[in-house]
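This protein record is not my work; I was only asked to verify it. Would you go through it and say whether the fold makes sense for this chain? Here is the record exactly as it was handed to me.
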Amino acid sequence: MSCYKIIFILTNFLLILTLPIAEAKEPKQVTVATVDNHVITAQDVLNATNRLPKKIKDKPLSEIYPKIVNELINQHLITKQAYKDKFDKQEEVIDILKKNKDQIIAQYWLNNFLLNKTSEEKIKNFYTKYLENFKTFKEFNASHILVNEEDEAFQIIKKLENKSKFSELAKSYSVGPSKEKGGNLGWFRSGQMVKEFEEAILKLKKGTITKKPVKTRFGYHIIMLNDIRNSRPKKINDIKQNIVERIKQNSLSNLEKQLRKNKSIKIFDFRKVVQEINS
């Protein structure tokens, strides 16, 4: 069942409970209004809903349903009148319609192109190459307490020397975003932290804490090295979305080169274009 159908069913759930059970239909098969021989379907309503501003779209569909249906009726009647008055024969309208048609066809072609490029088979092939080229590296897990003043940092170090718990001090004194996690920064690799922080980490042994505050552009850090490990390849489900995005980027880049090959393309200077418009 499509997500559209689910939305429709949930919106009218109470009503459905009171009706006899009928065979489920796709939204495009369900009529919501007719104008002479013209049929407006539930799919038309859903499509119109998706084009609405977010603050209106977030309202219950049952609330905005009558207005949407009436707007679709008006749109159909205005369209009929426009054809009657031969607006479809006007040069300006023909030009706009052609450009819109070209954009729609291009977008559908591109969507289909990217869909083929990101098939399950191609995702698995990409992941296999990732495993083949994976090189292990050191990863560090550390916690820190970040404060603005060096004196305060020394006072916290003294508390730690007197057996105060690192995570509790981080929650009480740290001004960094990791304070809610007891100062824990999770796993990171070399190059992901500022130079001074990383240099301090490399001097620590597992389970030890910096004896002096470490100054960076963010303030003064007291750092505890929780653990060190060799990195491991990520599981395919953990990076699947990243793989899809990478394949799309690579495919689009290659497509652009392919389409532009042997084509005579000129881009005119912006100032010259503006000058011609304003002259």
